[in-house]
Amino acid sequence: MTQRMDDAFAATRAENRPALVTFVMAGDPNFDTAKEIVLGLPDAGADVIELGMPFSDPMADGPAIQAAGQRALKSGQDMKKTLELVRQFRAQNSGTPIVLMGYYNPIYIYGVDQFLADALEAGVDGLIVVDLPPEEDEELCLPALNKGLNFIRLATPTTDDKRLPQVLANTSGFVYYVSMTGITGSALSNPTNISAAVERLNKHTDLPICVGFGIKTADDAKRIGANADGVVVGSVLVSAVEDGVAANEQPSQIAARVHKIVRDLAEGARSSR
Amino acid sequence: MTSTANSLRQGPDEMGRFGMFGGRFVAETLMPLILELDEAYKAAKADPSFQDELDYLNKHYIGRPSPLYFAERLTEHLGGAKIYFKRDELNHTGSHKINNCIGQILLAKRMGKPRIIAETGAGQHGVATATVCARFGFPCVVYMGAKDVERQAPNVFRMKLLGAEIIPVTAGQGTLKDSMNEALRDWVTNVDDTYYLIGTAAGPHPFPQMVRDFQSVIGRETKEQMMEAEGRLPDMLVAAVGGGSNAIGLFHPFLDDKDVQIVGVEAGGKGLDGDEHCASLTAGKPGVLHGNRTYLLQNYDGQIDEGASISAGLDYPGIGPEHSFLKESGRVEYVPIMDDEALEAFQLLTRLEGIIPALEPSHALAELVKRAPKMDKDQIIVMNLCGRGDKDVFTAAKHLGVDLEQ
C-alpha cells in the first residue's frame, strides 16, 4: 500500500514539480456525484486524492468543509459508503493514492481493527486523522502502520523543533504542513514563512512535505509549490460543489466545475519551478 | 482521604486518562498549547501564592464558603432522610460556574494570555466568564448558539453589560456543542494570546482535572460543614450532571468514603425512548469528541446527536470523562429525570423552602424526592443546589401554561 504513495511522489519528483493533492468530501452532495468527481480527479491533474470522511463536529475545519460534511451526512453518507466509494474508484484506477481524512470518532465507532481491514481491502493508502496527535498514537496510528497503511501527520506553526521529532516519528507517506494557525479555508499566510517552515521540516525528515490550508488559486499553488513537494487544496473544491448544488446542476456539471478548478491548480503547480 | 493504590481519586494519569476515558484528542496546532497549559497548571498548584489568591477571591468575591442548609420543611414533607442543600446558588453570579472561572482566570493571568474565550449554552458560564474578565480587565469573547442568543436575551444583555463580545454560532445546529467547536476554532486560530476558559469538566486534558479541582471546593466545604452539623459524613450525595462540573466538585472529595452513596442525575428530557433527552451516560456509548473519550449521544456511524432538555445547562451530548470512569467503576450511580419531574420539583422547593432553584438542580431534587422517603429518618442526604432559578422563570412559566407577556 505504501508503494502507491511512494511511487506518486517519486514520479512528481522525477518531473521536478510539486504533487497536487486534492481534498473532496465523500458523499458530497451525494454518493453518485462524489463518485463522478473523484473518478475524474486524476485526469484533471490530481496526484494524490484526499477523501473526507464526513463528521458532525469537524473542529478544525472552516465553513466550506463543515458544510460539505453536512451535505454528505444529509444525503446518507456513512463510513461504509465512504469505503465503498474508495472500492469503486480503485476498480477503475490502480495508480492514484487515496488518503482518507477526518476525525477519530466515526473510525472508533466502526471499530479500529475492522476499519483498518476494510480500508486496506478497499484500496486506501493512508489516513489523516485530525484529532489524533502523537500522544494518542496507540489508538490508531500504530495499528495502521502495522497493517501497512500510511499515517500522515499534520505539522503546524506551533510544532516547534523540540516537538517535531515526536510528530514525525510515526509519520509515513508524506508530512502535511498546515501553513497557518487556524481552520481550513482561511487566508493564506506569507509564502516566505511557509518556505522557511518547509526547509525546517526537511532538516528533520526525508518524507515529502505537502503544504495546505489557504491555497485557493493557481497562483497560490505556483508560489507554494516552488519549495514544497506538494500542495493541498480543499475548501475551494468543496465550495465549487456548493455552488453547483445551489445552481441545481446535474452531477456531471458539478463534477465538471470541480475538475476545471483542479486543472487550473495543476497548471499552476506544474509551472512553479 | 488517604492516597492508596485503590483510591478512586488518583486520576487522571500522565496521559490525562481516567481509566480508558479522557485523553488529549486535539489537532496538532492545539497540542503544544495543551501541554503548556498542563505545565502552567502544575506550577500554579504548587505555588502557595496562587492558592492564597484563589482562597481570597473565593471568600471575598464569590462569597464562599456557601452555606450547608438543613431543609427542615422539605425533610418533614418527604418524611424520610434528613435533607441538606449545599447552597452554591448563593454564589456571586448565581451558580457554581464562578468557582471554575475564578480559578482559570488566575491561571490565564499567570500564563500571560489576556484574551479570554468561552462557550456557553444558557449563558450561565458566559456570564460567569464575562464577570471574571471584567474583574481582571481582560477582553472576553463568548460563543453562543444563535438560538440560545434569542432565547436567553437577559443573559446576553448581562454579558454585554459586563463588556463581553457575544458571537452567535450558526455553524452545525447552532447549539452548545457547536459553540464549543467554534471556541476551539477560535483557539486554533489565535494561539498566542488566547486562553480558552472551558465551562465544564470536559475537553482535552488537563481541563477535566483542572475544572474538577476548582469545583472541588464544594465537596471539601461540604465535608467540613457536615462534620460540624452532624458529626459524621452523609449517607448520600445527589447532584445534577450536564457536562458534570458541579457534580464532580461535590463528589470528588467523597469518592474514597465507601459508605457515602453517590447519585448523579442526567436530563431525561421527554423520555429515553426518543431522541429528546441528554442522558449520555444512561443512553449513550463511549466515543471521542471535544478532545476526550467519554460517553456520547451518537448514532451508529459515530455522528454526534443533539441533546434536548428543558434545562439548557444540561443540554450537552457528552459528559466529563471522570463521570464516565465513575459510572464504569460502579462508584457513582447515574439516573435520568424527565422534564416534567424536574418542573414539579422546581415548584415543590419554591413553595416549601422559599428557594427558587435552577432547572438543573431541579433534576437532582426530583431524584431526591423519590429517594428520601424510602430512607430512615436518621439518614442524611446532601444535594448540590448548584444554581438559582431566576434565569428559568420564563421557561417554567411557559411550561406551566402561564403567559408572562399579558
Automatic annotation (TrEMBL), chain B:
InterPro entries on file: Trp_synth_b_CS (IPR006653), Trp_synth_beta (IPR006654), Trp_synth_beta/beta-like (IPR023026), TrpB-like_PALP (IPR001926), TrpB-like_PALP_sf (IPR036052)
Subunit structure comment from the entry: Tetramer of two alpha and two beta chains.
Protein name listed in UniProt: Tryptophan synthase beta chain
PROSITE patterns: TRP_SYNTHASE_BETA
Cofactor(s) needed for function: pyridoxal 5'-phosphate
Catalytic activity entry: (1S,2R)-1-C-(indol-3-yl)glycerol 3-phosphate + L-serine = D-glyceraldehyde 3-phosphate + L-tryptophan + H2O
Pathway it works in: Amino-acid biosynthesis; L-tryptophan biosynthesis; L-tryptophan from chorismate: step 5/5
Source species of the chain: Maritalea myrionectae
